Target: Putative aldehyde dehydrogenase
Amino acid sequence: MTGRLQNFIGGAFVDSESEESIDIINPADESVVAVSPVSTAAEVSAAIDAAEKARIAWGTTTPKERADVLLKLADAVEAHADEIVEAQIRNTGQLRAMVKNDEVLISADQLRFFAGAARLLEGKSAGEYMEGFTSYIRREPIGIVGQVTPWNYPFMMAIWKIGPALAAGNTIVLKPSDTTPESTVVLARLTQGIVPDGVFNMVLGTGATGAELVSDPRLGLVSITGSVRAGIAVAAAAAATVTRAHLELGGKAPAVVFADADIEAAASGIAEASYYNAGQDCTAATRAIVHSAVYDQFLEALLAKVATIKPGGVDDEDAFYGPLNNIRHFTTVTEKIAALPEHATIATGGTRVGDRGFYFAPTVITGVRQDDAIVQEETFGPILTVQTFDDEDDAVAKANGVDYGLAASVWTTDNGTANRMTARIDAGCVWVNGHIPLVVEMPHGGFKNSGYGKDMSAYGVEDYTRIKHVMSANT
Model:
C-alpha cells in the first residue's frame, strides 16, 4: 500500500481531516493499493478559497506567460512519464504500454498544443459598427473552474480539463474519480514550482465531494466527463447558481458498414475500436450496423478477429486490454448480459475471464432489436452488438435511434455515400473507414445526451473564456 493520499490546495499537499475514507482497489488483482480521504465540505471550500486568491494574478498574466507554464508542465509530464504510468496502472490495471504511449506521452503533446492556443484566441475584428464608436471584443477567463474527471483515462482526462482552462487564464479545483486518483496526485506534485500556488487545486473523494464542489456559487464554470446521470446532476447544480456547465458524457457509437466496404478492414477496425481499453471509452464502437447483403461475411470476419483479442495483465504482450475498472462497473456489465432478451444471441464471450480481477471476455451479440436495452443503453464494456440494415434511410434511422450522439463511423468505398452519411448522422465526430482516433487540433464533444461543449482544439479553449464587448466613443 502507498498510504493515505492527500489533497492539494494552494500549492501544497495537505492531510484531510475527514474521518471517512475509501480503499483504492487495483482491478487487476483486487488488492488495496492506497486509501483516499473523502474530503469535507470545508476542505472543498478551502480549495476554492485558494483558487479565488490566485484568480486575479493568474487571469491577468500574458498569453506568453501562461504558455510558458504549460510548456514547462509538458516537459515535466514527459520526464516523469514512467512514474505517472505506475501510479495509474495501480488504479486501472490498464496495459502499461498503452497508458504510456496513448495517454501520458500524448498528454504532454496536448499540453504543448494548449500552450500555443493560449496565444491565438480570436474575436471579431475591431471596428466602427456604429458611427462615432469603436467596438472590440475581449476574451477573458471565466474565473474559477470546478472540474470532475472520470476513471477510464484518468490522467489524460485531467489534461483535457486543465490544459484549456489554464491556457485561458482560469484557476482550477479538480476532483478525480474516487477509484483512480493516483495519477492525478502525481500531476499535482508536478505542478509545484511550475504552476503558481492556488492556480491548480485538487480535492479527493466520492460523488458527494464532486457535488459539493460543483454547487459552490463562486465557480464560473463546472466541467465533467462522466455518465449521463452524473452530467444531469452537475447541470442541475450549475443551474441553481446560473453557472455555466461543460458536459462530456456517454456514448453509444454506431459503426455503419455498407455493402461496398472492405469487409475485412471494417471487421478488424470495428473490433479494435470496440474492445480498446476494455470498451471503457465513450467513443467506442458499440453497435455494428451492417448491410444485410454482407452481414454473414462481416460476422465471420468479425468473429475471426475477436478470437485473437484477449484481456490480460499490465505487461502481457499478448493482451489487447485490461480489466474493467471496479467491482460496481463489473457487476453492471455482468447484469446487462444476464438481462439479454431471448431473441439475442451471444456469438462469443459474455463471461468473466479468470477468477481474480475484473476481466471480461470480448463479447459479440447478434439478433438484437433497436429497442433492446443492450442497444439503447451505454454498457461501457467490451460488448459489441450487430444489427442489419436494408437501405441508407434504415441505416440512418438505426444509427441515430438512441439518446446519445457522441461518435460514429461509416465504412464504405463510395465518396457520395460517405458524404451523405456523415451529414445525416447525429454525432459530434464521424469517422470514415476508421473509428476511435482523436487529435488535439480537432474538437471532441457530442450532441443529445452525450452533452455539450468541446474538449481539445481551439474550440475547447474558447469554452473556458467569456466574451466581453467594449464600445468606446470616438470623441
Remarks:
- The two ends are 70 Å apart (CA to CA).
